[in-house]
Specification:
This protein is mostly beta strands. Strand 25 and strand 26 form a beta hairpin. InterPro entries: RCC1-like_dom (IPR058923), RCC1/BLIP-II (IPR009091), Reg_chr_condens (IPR000408), Ub_ligase/GEF_domain (IPR051210).
């Protein structure tokens, strides 16, 4: 069972025999009771709501059933019993709905170690309600697979995290990015033994670099010793071959990291964004000093708005924000190709709200930043894409650029829950576990069977979303897709199933698939099981 979930008690019914309704005979007329005055808040004669005399039982039910924050808000709105002070510790003034939300917050791993003062600060930052804090925590867990098993298809190397927090790495290792103390390539998934006993909840992989986040908010990094190293070619020669704590982040409780080209970003437990080597003015998203090892808070509109997810592309950053009015997306950095989503191709020095989602009436729930294009999944399951549309990576049936989010009409009948983007490629996972892909077919990373197109290319580009039938055949529900987000490396893709099985396909020339290739093989066209259990 995942650390963030709890079982819901099952009510057992005894001594009730099955019989049809017509077989039940009423022998004597039932007595008629006088309707008492309706009470919501209990007293000595609770009336039609007898549980109001035992609010502790109601609180237990609300907490044990893991009600959604919106459901708790609806209870408050419809019944005064749930609005009035419940007179329970730790705050006698809190309502039952607020207490239930607070209790569920205390189950979250990143909330548990917070001091009372830190919790109150987070509450005010989220809007002054524990229900809003709970929504913030749940949103972060959902979009980042925080504290759950995950696989990262990095540029030439791969990272896999088990549900228990153990970490495996494999693939290219020229800069020590596998963390094994050497620079030797590894095709077989190998645990990072120096991290035994340390629980990892999130991972990020860039060109020649890896970052791991622990459940205590610490950050380990290894590979290229720079937060702003370019993907191709390097400014420095120093490499770190074993995980080392990032000292400059020791006073920040980090829950997510995102490695873009030329820069790195991290997200704190309180929803604040920090960047390394971000640059300024005309060099937004580009390092100005490759030796910049200090985190800088992202200034502007998001200073007082909590962020639940960050996604880094080629010199730009997307931030999924959680406000009392709902979820929203902000973008900042290089606007080339329209990838910032504001209807223009201009750069943005400070985070700017993407207003198109309000026009489309979409509540964003997951964001993905490819090298040159971006995507969002809405609460209603709709998928939006925008940016550079080369090779059909936007899924609109053409290769045109879109400077503002546009709904992928070909997925109208699909309720999406997850999206992943890479270098001109996009994957969408539906609620029932089906996987669709579109964009550049190079390196077999889309998962479709190889066919020769009119130009003789073995892997054709896909302009509209197509069901990845090869993943359908594994007969397991896919919950996560990860693909290489780099313009310089041959791409590979991972599909993680609900039971923790990992499948890989695409380029494997550096061992990044975790599968041994023979003879002159450089790729796998169809998904193949990686010999590692992440469940």
């Amino acid at each position: 069972m995942d650390a963030t979930t709890s079982g819901t008690p099952t009510i057992q019914y005894h001594n009730i025999t099955d019989q049809t309704i017509t077989a039940i005979v009423v022998a004597t007329p039932l007595p008629t009771f006088q309707r008492q005055q309706r009470h919501c808040f209990g007293n000595s004669t609770p009336g039609e709501f007898p549980l109001s005399a035992n609010p502790s039982i109601v609180l237990h039910v609300l907490t044990a059933c893991n009600l959604d924050p919106q459901d708790l808000a609806k209870l408050e709105a419809t019944c005064s019993f749930f609005r009035q002070p419940a007179n329970f510790a730790p705050d006698l003034a809190l309502s039952l709905s607020e207490l239930a939300a607070f209790d569920m917050c205390r189950k979250r791993a990143i909330f548990k170690p917070m001091t009372t003062e830190e919790r109150q600060d987070l509450k005010q930052r989220c809007g002054g309600s524990w229900k809003l804090v709970l929504r913030y925590l749940l949103a972060g867990e959902a979009c980042c697979r925080r504290e759950k098993s995950q696989a990262i298809a990095g540029p030439g190397h791969s990272i896999a995290v088990t549900s228990k927090g153990d970490v495996y790495s494999f693939g290219s290792n020229s800069s020590g990015q596998l963390g094994h103390g050497t620079t030797d390539e590894e095709w077989r998934p190998r645990p990072i033994r120096t991290l035994q006993g340390i629980r990892i909840i999130q991972a990020a992989a860039g060109a020649g670099r890896t970052m791991l986040i622990t459940d205590s908010g610490q950050v380990y990094a290894f590979g290229k010793d720079s937060f702003g190293e370019a993907e191709y070619g390097g400014q420095g020669s120093k490499v770190v071959t074993s995980p080392q704590l990032v000292e400059s982040l020791k006073n920040i409780f980090v829950v997510q990291a995102a490695i873009g080209n030329f820069f790195t970003a991290v997200l704190s437990r309180e929803g604040r964004v920090y960047t390394f080597s971000w640059g300024n003015d005309g060099k937004l998203g580009h390092h100005t000093d490759p030796n910049d090892m200090e985190p800088h808070p992202l200034l502007g509109a998001l200073e007082d708005i909590p962020v639940v997810q960050i996604a880094a592309g080629y010199c730009y950053l997307l931030c999924l924000a959680c406000q009392p009015s709902g979820m929203s997306v902000y973008s900042v950095g290089c606007g080339l190709g329209g990838k910032l989503g504001h209807g223009t191709r201009t750069d943005e020095k400070f985070p700017r709200l993407i207003e198109q989602f309000q026009t489309l009436n979409i509540q964003p729930m997951v964001v993905a930043a490819g090298a040159w294009h971006a995507a969002v999944v809405g609460q209603d399951g709709r998928v939006c894409t925008w940016g550079w549309g080369r090779y059909g990576c936007l899924g609109h049936g053409n290769e045109e650029c879109e400077a503002a989010p546009k709904v992928v009409e070909a997925l109208t009948n699909v309720k999406a829950v997850h999206v992943a983007t890479g270098d001109y490629t996009t994957f969408v996972v539906s609620e029932d576990g089906d996987v669709y892909s579109f964009g550049c077919g190079e390196s077999a990373s889309l998962g479709h069977n190889a066919v020769n197109d009119e130009q003789g290319n073995r892997h054709a580009n896909v302009l509209n979303p197509e069901l990845v039938t090869s993943l359908k055949q594994i007969n397991e529900r896919v919950v996560q897709i990860s693909l290489t987000n780099s313009i310089y490396w041959n791409a590979h893709t991972f599909a993680l199933t609900e039971s923790g099985k990992l499948y890989g396909f695409g380029a494997g020339d550096k061992g990044q698939l975790g599968i041994e290739l023979v003879a002159n093989q450089t790729e796998r066209v169809n998904p193949e099981r990686v010999d590692i259990d992440l469940g």
